[in-house]
Amino acid sequence: MKFRNYIYSKIIKLQAFLEKKNTIWIVLISIVFANVLFYNISNKTPFSTIQKRKDASGFSFHLAEKFSYFHYYTGNFPLATLNEDLKYSIEDAESEIQENGHNLIMEYKHWSRLGESARVLAFLPNSIIAGSPQNPSIKLFNSIVFVISLIVLYLGFWRVKKPLYGLILVVLINLTPFYLYEIYSNQNIFALLGSVFFMIIGLNVFVLFKKEKFYYYLLLSCISGVIIGFFSEFRNEISIVLLSLILIYLFSKYLNLLKKTFIILLCFATFFGSKQLIRYHFNKKFEKTAVLVAKAGGHVYNGKRISGHIFWHPIFCGLGDFDEDYGYEWNDKVVYRYATPILQEKYGMDIKYSDKYHLDNYYDKDSLYYIKFDEINEYEDIVKEKVLSQIKEDPFWYIAIIFKRVIRTLTVTIPIPYVGWLIFYVIYFFIKNRYWTYLKLLLVSLPLSATSIIIYSGDGATYNSVYVYFVIISMMLILYEKMQLSKLKLQ
Predict the structure, then answer these.
(1) What does R_g of the chain's alpha carbons equal in angstroms?
(2) Is the C-alpha dihedral spanning 372, 374, 377, 381 positive or negative?
(3) Model confidence pTM above 0.90
(4) Per-residue pLDDT, 17
(5) What are residue 370's DSSP bridge partners?
(6) 16-56 pLDDT, tens per residue?
(7) 3-state secondary structure the chain
């Protein structure tokens, strides 16, 4: 009992210490210092791969780096060169265009045509600091975004007088093997989803805990919509954070229905508006680059471009995580093999396929730009029809897959496996004790688990989920409440 009272008193003192205005700088500087340390350590010793995503290629760094050279020196995009012997200066880049224009290309494999063009911006922080894109890296970009998200997250909880809650959350996230690896050791952007979510929570957590003037809600909802829209042009799955943002405003007890509706519409407008502005920007760059390449005698890309990943293809592949009856696999080639004869016979297309990740047909006579299945409209229709007819034919098979995905999402979790199962007790406790605000905060984190339940749950896809952080914090809160209750009973 003495030990319990001792812990309780220490928590009270720590909470009071963290609430002081001067203390906030200690926490923020500590966040920055810790992550600078992690960044430097990662340059010598990579962090553990115990938690990493293997379900997708993500950024495709080995393809993307081809475009960093001209984008940094000239601003042109998408522009690369077949020449491997490059010199690194503005003058050399311009000379490369003038003297070796015949080597210029606007696509390498299939990186630039599949949308999400803002990804190329991830190279800039490292190139600016280094003064050259010679050794391209996106780790600095990931680190900056991550640190900003942790700072914003802590400030959000500090502002609603929950600094200890925010501090524990930040420490948990910062020490998670998944984020340490994906941010500081891996040249990919899988951690970006979490970073954007933490940023949005930090900006908007006040909506659940305290009342503010209406213009403040409007301002931060606009900023949040722009942030999600911007980063979704790096990777489209980040769009799911918009659902979390909408839930925050729907759950607010400080806004009436009319105000909630207006703010949610504003979130949609700023989200889609920022996406369209970014796409417009890169479309203009594409047009300008096409003129430059044509004038220089290079290889202009005249093939199809899409705005982002198609939907039904990953749904089809994703059924392979638990299917044992119909031959589905998390393998693009399985879908391509299925669709090829239908495209040829039903739609009369003259296509050739030899078990690659693309067709043997090309857009250009030099065979630099192959055609991807994603760029054929009928392909998506074929895949959609197959998936829906399979589900209709055997709905219990599909229900079983969804059920198994839910189990995996509760089990294979960050930061700690199996802790996800505690969510049921946490929800029960919050409902029983009418802790509605904390329950709402937990529910706001659930949309990030959607992709592992709707699309695919294998190979670390469940690491998109962040709800376990709030489960852990909730358990700590429950223990604290019980300690407080025991103290009152003794008195």
Answers:
(1) 25
(2) positive
(3) yes
(4) 83
(5) 362
(6) 888 888 899 999 999 999 999 999 999 999 999 999 999 99
(7) CHHHHHHHHHHHHHHHHHHCCCHHHHHHHHHHHHHHHHHHHHCCCCCCCCCCCCCCCCCCHHHHHHHHHHHHHHCCCCCEECCCCCCCCHHHHHHHHHHCHHHEECCCCCCCCCCCHHHHHHHHHHHHHHCCCCCCCCHHHHHHHHHHHHHHHHHHHHHCCCHHHHHHHHHHHHCCHHHHHHHHCCCCCCCHHHHHHHHHHHHHCHHHHCCCCHHHHHHHHHHHHHHHHHHHCCCHHHHHHHHHHHHHHHHCCCCCHHHHHHHHHHHHHHHHHHHHHHHHHHHHHHHHHHHHHHHHCCECCCCCCCCCCCCHHHHHHHHHHCCCCCCCCCCHHHHHHHHHHHHHHCCCCCCCCCCCCCCCCECCCCCCCECCHHHCHHHHHHHHHHHHHHHHHCHHHHHHHHHHHHHHHHHCCCCCCCHHHHHHHHHHHHHHCCCHHHHHHHHHCHHHHHHHHHCCCCCCHHHHCCHHHHHHHHHHHHHHHHHHHHHHHHC
Rounded to a whole number of angstroms, the distance between the first and last alpha carbons of the chain is: 13
Q: Average pLDDT of the chain? A: 94
Nearest to 351 by CA among 383, 376, 368: 376
pLDDT tens-digit readout, 192-215: 999 999 999 999 999 999 999 999
Query: What's the pLDDT score for residue 308?
Result: 72
Length of the chain: 491
pLDDT above 90 as % of the chain: 90
CB-CB contact of 426 with 471 (8 Å) = yes
Per the listing, tokens 């812990």 go with 7
Indicate the pLDDT class of residue 287, thresholds 50, 70 and 90. very high
Task: Compute the C-alpha angle 325/330/331, nearest 5°.
Answer: 110
Within 10 angstroms of residue 67's Cβ, the number of other Cβ atoms is: 26
Identify the CA nearest to 176 among candidates 154, 194, 157.
Answer: 194
pLDDT digits (tens, 9 = 90+) for 469-489: 999 999 988 887 776 666 555
Confidence of residue 219 (pLDDT cuts 50, 70, 90): very high
Cα(162)–Cα(476) distance, integer angstroms: 13
